[in-house]
Amino acid sequence: MSRSVERAGISLAAVAVLVAGAAGCQSGGDKKAADAPKKAAGQSSPKDARTALQAAYKKTSAAKSAKVTMKMSIPGAGAAGVGDMEMSGVQSWDPAAVDMTISGGAFKSAKRGAPDKIRMVQLNNVMYMDMGEAAAKEMDGKRWMKMDLGAPAKGDGSAASAQQMTGGAEKQDPAQQLALLTDSPNVKHLGTEQIDGAPADHYKGTLTLDEMIASNQNLDAMSALDRRKLIDTMKQAGIQGYDTELWLNKDGYPVRMNVGIDSSQGKISMSAHYSEYGTKVAVGAPPASETFEFSELLKGAGAGGDA
Q: What is the CATH number of the domain that holds 274?
């Protein structure tokens, strides 16, 4: 197996993980549940809906962690169209940490040498992906790919691309999504439905790209240059807006979320199911001797060609 083919396969899987990071972090739900409300209650006013969502935001923020299972679908061709993917594991948002296994989508069609599933761990702004034995053979025994999402963008654009693909994964938790939904100018309560055998209140709202940018405080922490590059990249990708649906259980916690993103490639859909709020999340970084930088992999695959 040639070095370039094997690295290209690993790159495809890596990009799929990075795109999926947005999901980890964007949230999701169940279309069947969204399509079949059990009780068509009268829609409440946006003010009443925001009051309920603000209360849920406080509870979710205080919980600090949860177990999560996710599904996402990304249309398009090549590495950008990774198809359907699944993620499962635990996530903490105070402190920010993730430990998930990702499978499906591009992993099924990746070139020889790429793993069929990947473990991803993240601590604050640093993400690590276990690229398997193939990566270890090609990267001097190193199997964990490292990406510092908080590092300044480099001249090759890899950092900016990573930030765009992950969408600030370490900060896109259910509490953050509640905050964004609360900012929607047309948020509404759609009634009560049965989710996992229990009643849950269904909320929905939309945000244009400009409204999302204005309300997303994560972008305020970026430098003016990186912020402009990220926004330009999103606009060039044809991202137009976000649709968010959320179900709160009787205790006021999100149990399901659906997020749809309109892009020039089509509809990007993400879904998540949250449970066991307050669960313990113990994430450790892999040894430095077993890690390599994402930029090394891009160079090996032709800096944007097969990667």
A: 2.50.20.20
